[in-house]
Amino acid sequence: MNQPANDWRALAASAGTGGYGPQRIVCLTEEPTEWLYMLGEERRIVGISGYTVRPPRAREEKPKVSAFLSAKIDKIVELQPDCVIGFSDLQADIASQLVKKGIQVTIFNQRSVAEIFSMMYQLAAMVGQEARGLALIQGMQRRLLEIERAAAGLKRRPRVFFEEWYDPHISGIAWVSELIGIAGGDDCFPELAAKAMGKDRIIADGGEIVRRDPDIILGSWCGRKFRPDHVRARAGWENVSAVKNNQLFEIKSADILQPGPAALTDGIEQIHQLVMNWSQVHA
């Protein structure tokens, strides 16, 4: 295992790049954990989010030190991290507490597909895996282009409503909307996708969803199990195309609401398959 260098002389004497960059990383969300494992740099991780499920082994190997909006600050300090990685202004309070204790904090704020790739590249470079990271990124990009080309041949694109929460209704965030488009669908609420905060993507009038008549409804209820029967039972929804044609599906939050590798691989693959299945019957 590479040990952190005490000074620049140790780094100068090193033949590789392993001594550069953070050696003891705490990840406050799942996506940097999954990415570091993909890069083969999991040894650097000393703490993870309690919501982490990807990769499964991370839950067995790493101590859990945070939720999403809260963290065990004392526990993180005890782990002596030289970098804590978080996501967005929602973790600003956690970041502030850690900075005040002299801990380096890096907060990413990726909201689009391009920004997710940028985050992944930056993190790969931080741990001396720029080349491996770029190769993995380019592989994902090639697959996205393949999916997009396949979707271009659809006779009709389905209208897709992505429901991030059900009471109140919250539509999909930017990267989800983009991935729906790449996969061959049209987001029913593209005008809301650019809104970073869930509260700004609330659809107060459920009747508006009915009027936009989605062909497919995807549910990803922030960790809660999606219930198609709950959707079917909504007053006035019986004539919505997705309800009539039984096109109600769950995409697990870990696969699509994590702005990292999962959404760009398993998440879009699931959406694309559902779109293509729909097109064979309903297009």
Give an account of the 3D structure:
The chain is globular. It has 2 domains: 8-109, Nitrogenase molybdenum iron protein domain (Rossmann fold, 3-Layer(aba) Sandwich); 155-282, Nitrogenase molybdenum iron protein domain (Rossmann fold, 3-Layer(aba) Sandwich), CATH 3.40.50. With 283 residues, the protein is of the alpha/beta class. It has helices at residues 8-13, 30-38, 56-61, 73-78, 92-100, 113-126, 130-151, 174-183, 190-193, 206-212, 228-232, 241-244, 253-256, 261-282; strands at residues 25-27, 45-49, 64-66, 83-87, 105-108, 159-166, 169-171, 186-187, 202-203, 216-219, 248-250. The strands form 2 sheets. Strands 6, 7, 8, 9, 10 and 11 form a 6-stranded mixed beta sheet that branches. The model is unreliable at 1-5 (pLDDT under 50).
Question: Descriptors for this entry?
Answer:
Rossmann fold, disordered N terminus, about 280 residues, 14 helices, five-stranded parallel sheet, globular, alpha/beta, six-stranded mixed sheet, about 15% strand
Unreliable stretches (pLDDT < 50, length at least 5) are 1-5
Structural class by secondary-structure content: alpha/beta
Over the alpha carbons, how many angstroms does the gyration radius reach?
21 Å
Q: Which overall shape is indicated by the principal axes computed on the Cα atoms?
A: globular
Strand content: 5-15%
| Secondary-structure element series | HEHEHEHEHEHHEEHEHEHEHHEHH
Number of helices: 14
Number of domains: 2
Mean pLDDT: 95
CATH class group of the largest domain = Alpha Beta
**Largest beta-sheet characterization:** 6 strands, mixed
Look up the CATH topology of the largest domain: Rossmann fold
Name of the CATH superfamily of the largest domain: Nitrogenase molybdenum iron protein domain
End-to-end separation in angstroms reads 55 Å
CATH architecture of the largest domain: 3-Layer(aba) Sandwich
